[in-house]
Amino acid sequence: MDNQKTEDYSALDKLGLVASRAFVAVDKRIRETVRSDHMLALYAPTGTGKSTALDISIGRMTDSGRTFIMRTTAYNPGADISGSIINIMIGELMQQKPRRDILARLTQLKGGLLEHSRKKKIVLVIDEAQDMHHQTLYAIKKLHELGSSVMRRNLFSVILSGKPGLQNLITAEELNFRFGVHEMQPLSKAEAVDYFRMRRVKFPNPDAMERIIHRCGTRPAALDSACNLLLAMSGEDKITGDIVKNYLRRNYRPAMAELGMSDRKVADEIYAATGMRYSPSTINKITNGHTVGSKDDVVLDAVADVLSKRRQEVQNKQTVRRQAG
Predict the structure, then answer these.
(1) What is the rounded distance in angstroms from the CA atom of residue 252 to the CA atom of residue 325?
(2) What is the pLDDT of residues 151-186, one digit of tens each?
(3) DSSP H stretches of helix in 145-203
(4) How far is it, in rounded angstroms, from Cα 312 to Cα 271?
(5) Residue 207 CA: distances (Å) to CA of 213, 226, 246, 275
(6) pTM exceeds 0.90
(7) Residue 210 neighbours by CB under 8 Å, 6+ apart
(8) What is the DSSP letter of 229?
(9) Helices (H) and strands (E) in the chain, counts
C-alpha cells in the first residue's frame, strides 16, 4: 500500500480497491490536466484499472459541482467521428440542437464554451481512444483551440483513455507537444498482497499467495477475478492448499484452444524457454487436472508462462493491424 495514502483516497477501501501508487499518479495527472485545461492521453492494458481510476477521479470532480463532464466512446474504428463529437458537446453542454452548417456549429459550440467555462471546468472524455482516426485527433486539437486568447488559452480539457496503441496515435509533432501522455502501471507485488488482505482472503502459507500472484499477475482485474473464484471454491474466506492447486489447474484447456496451442506446441515452447522437456501427454494430463508427479506445479507455471507470452503476441499483432488500417 502506498505509504503516502491520504484521507482523500480512504473511500477506495470501502470499494475493495487499493490506493496504489499507479492510481494516485493517474488521479493526480487527471486533476492537473483539468485544472490547466490541457489534453491528456491515458493508456494501459485491459484490466490494469485505468477505467476504474478514471471513473473515480472524474466522479469526484462531478460530485464537487465545479466540473462538467462530457463523455463518449471512440466507436466505429477507422472512421472520422469529429462531427459526432461536436454534436455531443453541443447537446450535452448547451442542451441545443446542432446547427446544420459546420461553421455555424463551431460558432455555436464556441459560444457555449465561453459561457459555461466561466462557471465550471469543462472536460471532454473519450474512451477506447486507441481506435480513433488520425483526422479525429487533429479535429479535437482544433476544437481545443476554440476561444483561446492571450488571457485564457483554452476553454476545456480533453482526456483520451485507451489501450497501449493510443500512444502511437499522437506521435505526430503537431499532436505530440499538445498531449500529455501517461501510462498506468499495474499494482506492485506488495500492493497485490495488500489487495488479498483487503478482501480478507486467507492463504495457507505465503508461498500459496505468491503462486497465485505469479499466475494471475498484478493487474487489478485479474486479482479481483482470482479472489472471486478462490472464495467461491472455498465457500468461506480461508483458502486451503488443495483449493490453490485446483485454481492453478483451471482454464488451461480453453485458453490453449483459444490461442491455437496444441499439447505438442506448448511442450515445444516450454523447452525453448526453459530447456525442460515434457511430453505432450504430460501436458495434456496436467492441464486436465490429473496428477502426474511432484513437478505438476512447475509444469503448470511453465504452461501459464507460455500462454501469457502467446496472448501478448496475439494482442501485439492485433494492435499493428489496427494501426496499419
Answers:
(1) 33
(2) 567 899 999 999 988 988 888 888 888 899 999 988
(3) 166-169, 173-176, 189-198
(4) 19
(5) 10, 16, 15, 24
(6) no
(7) none
(8) H
(9) 16, 5
